[in-house]
Amino acid sequence: MGKVIALANQKGGVGKTTTAINLGASFAILEHKTLLLDADPQANATSGVGFDPKIVKTSIYECIIDDIDPNNIILNTNTPNFDLLPAHIDLVGAEIEMINLPNRERMMRKVIQRIREQYDFILIDCSPSLGLITVNALTAADSVMIPVQCEYFALEGLGKLLNTIKIVQSRLNPALDIEGILLTMYDNRLNLAKQVVEEVKTHFQQMVFSTIINRNTKLGEAPSFGNTIMTHDINSMGAINYLNLAREILQRNQVAVVTEAYNTKTE
């Protein structure tokens, strides 16, 4: 069965959705069938891979609330091996509708169990909050990845997120691991960015991925075209970073890494 990784950070603007989209595309290019599950009412992951959330008729919301079979609404992206389970704005109301349901924290887990055998990886793009939908994602996941931007307030709120993860581990999902902390938006021209990297590595040591995601104009451009960085500019630094991150995760999980045709420099 596929590994389920939730990408979570209640602080917005840390590169969480960018990572969900482009890490998923990288896994796909490395020949691992991957599903991107958009669990954010803003539906940025849905639009970021080329679908208009306004015309998405059925989404993860209906799977959770109305028990719709997710197999019937999964969309194929323009990257082979990379699929999407979309979101739309109705997901905002899901937490209110779920509040009185039995096993309300396990609704997303039930959805994922119906599809996880079809994928090598399922990536859940969580909303920038620690609400019930995010708790559902953490309860459904095997591990959680935490993107942290290389800026002054990098560690702000990280303690609260880690505390939420501990609560989920103790009460809902004892098997939940921390996949790792990912440093994003790195600018090697700034001393502050270098200081943040050192501080995060000092505090969290082996939890921090070796791969760092650099600030990259192409990464910012790609969603406006409805493309991943892989289809927008495979030779960009952003594409190289995310392919290297995918390889690092595969190696951490002792999964064979396919040697793809692309020349992905590490410098």
Condensed summary:
With 267 residues, the protein is an alpha/beta fold. The chain is built from eleven helices and seven strands.
Helical percentage: 25-40%
Q: Could you describe the largest sheet, including whether it forms a barrel?
A: 7 strands, mixed
Strand-pairing-aware structural class: alpha/beta
* Biggest sheet: strand arrangement: 3-4-2-5-1-6-7
Distance between the termini: 34 Å
Note the overall shape.
globular
Query: How many strands appear in the DSSP assignment?
Result: 7
Average pLDDT: 90
The number of distinct helices, counting runs of at least 4 residues, comes to 11
List low-pLDDT spans.
259-267
Radius of gyration over all CA atoms, rounded: 17 Å
- Approximately how much beta-strand content do the residues carry? 5-15%
**Element pattern in H and E:** EHEHHEEHHEHEHEHHHH
Features:
267 residues; 7 strands; alpha/beta; 7-stranded mixed sheet
Set out the fold topology.
Layout: E1 3-7, H1 16-29, E2 34-39, H2 44-48, H3 60-65, E3 75-76, E4 82-85, H4 94-98, H5 107-113, E5 121-126, H6 132-140, E6 143-149, H7 158-171, E7 177-184, H8 191-204, H9 217-221, H10 229-232, H11 237-252
Parallel strand pairs: 1-5, 1-6, 2-4, 2-5, 6-7
Antiparallel strand pairs: 3-4
